[in-house]
Amino acid sequence: MTLCQFVRSISFCIFLASSFLPLAHAQKTPAANANKSSLPAGIVGTVELLSGTVTVTTIKGVPRDITVGMALEAGDIIKTADESEAHANMADGAYLAVRANSTIKITAYAANGNSRDRSWIDVVTGSLRTVTGWIAKTRPKSYRINTPTATIGVRGTDHEVIYLRAEDAETEAEAGTHNVVYEGATTLQTSQGSVNITQGQAAYVPVDAFLPKIYTGQLPVFLVRARGMFDSDVVEHRRSLDAIMQRSLIERGLMRDGQNLQDIFRRLGGEGFAPGGGAGVTPELPGQNRAMQGVRSGILNQTFGGPGDTSKPVPVPFGLPGGGNPNAPPPMGMPSPSGSGMPFMPR
Predict the structure, then answer these.
(1) Of all residues in the chain, what percent carry a pLDDT higher than 90?
(2) Is residue 335 part of a domain?
(3) Distance between CA 215 and CA 176 in Å, rounded?
């Protein structure tokens, strides 16, 4: 073999190795098995994609080995390291993308086609992008994402929630809750007011204040940079969402082939049915007359007594003022104060 032939052979081997390199960085459910089938009782979702270092801890603090296809349960806490990401398919057809350096808790999740359906997720720190499933369509007030400074409600959307602690904030990124809407609409709300966020918009609630503000002009650089490594998977799921939700409903005996999806949503949701995207929906929260301990520190804290259900534990809403004071103003349902929609840019 001549020197020239040897060099060509080495170059070709390097090319082949580089072609398969991305496969070593992310484990993903094989396409043949990615039918997002019905889940056993107690299982609220399955891991779809893993990249880097990801851990899962149960509500009792027991670590679980995480693998692609692994079942997720209510109470699970998902934590990602630097340059890591985890995606999950949820029981109602929703999709979660947990970004790098993030901790989220699946506080409560039920998708049975009745009044107890709910999707409650806490973003303790970091970023979560989610495509909502049929719970947000049929019972929008039973869907919420909590952070230490705000609550986000939707009607069916693709959006991202970022919570930055003071120690994690950058020069151009203030600490607090940031919500970006890629499709649909959300409501960012605190005890002091709320703002509706539509497609292409973003809003913000700082740590040391409780009044949501809409960003004006171009989105801040850090919000664009926060997007994940596998966003094409999120977009693909969103484009197939109707078919995914339909499959989930059929497997639960809530829908038959040939039935109209919107009719099913209307039947399951009753007066709570939320057609299409539209404006965000104010989420229901547990009454503020319950003890609210550790709203900023603990991620396992729970209290009792929620809307329509006083027998089951419900999540403590993070970051709401009042600290359990029974005389504190109600956390939700208040009109937006004057100026809550004024333009706001980070310092």
Answers:
(1) 51
(2) no
(3) 14
